[in-house]
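Hello,

Following up on my earlier ticket. Below are the two sequence lines again, exactly as submitted.
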Amino acid sequence: MIEPWISLGGLLVTTGIYIVFAALKKKYQKEFFSPIIFGIILTILFLVAFGIPYNVYNYLGEYIGYLLTAAITCLAIPLYKQLPLLKKNLKPIILGIAIGSTSSLVGVYLLSLIFGLNNIQLVTLLPTSVTSGVAVEMSRELGGIVPVTIAVVIVTGIFGNLFAVPMLKWFKIKSPVAKGIAIGASSHVFGTIKAMEMGEKEGAASSLALVLGAIITVIVMAIVYLFI
Amino acid sequence: MIMPLLIVTMGVGLMDTWGDLQAFLIPAIVIAILTTILVLGVTGVIADAIMRRYEK
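Thanks for your patience. The regenerated structure is below:
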């Protein structure tokens, strides 16, 4: 059984790259040194160079997956603390998420038409804004290519995590609650991690949008499905 | 710090889906990015606007 050791080594390499680039980013105050982007690219190069397949590298990933699940549960704490604020703004939150999640489906549909994608490619991309667990089920149910859906969800999340702050500025979104739900509805867990860094209000709103966005997307999909 | 690190290990998985993704790589990435901008903008602007109306 050598796999766990290779996996552990690989994860340590990733951690090392991450720490180095996090330090570079802090020292030079440049967004360019993104530990996430460089972590992914350099780890892939490392694995390719040593001929290590992803499933061996990710041998311990199952357990890391548990950590992520546990970490997601922790999102409930700021949600609980910010409950009065969220309750007070229930209407803008629900309307924002409902219209935002629907706009995601419409956006993917229209862009797929523009790019001339086939039906399978369309349903593969459709759950792009939804958190990965729900996105996988949605893609499978609709007959999409599940691994590609996961990849696209990750791309969406990374993009949201990296560019949430400039995008919010660009759209002139001011209130912390609106910022949070905008991030959560557009870039699920990865975005929510960013929202947490911005503040507890943003983080709580983002976690709520992450959950409600997934539920609303599934409901809208079911309704659309009834009519085709 | 553990959560961003998890993003990295999941992102490395892109190396496996590369083959399937390659067929429509550019449209897939463009669609993912444009949709993210669209949803963030729509959700945030609507929520912000409704909140401002309520406060007045």
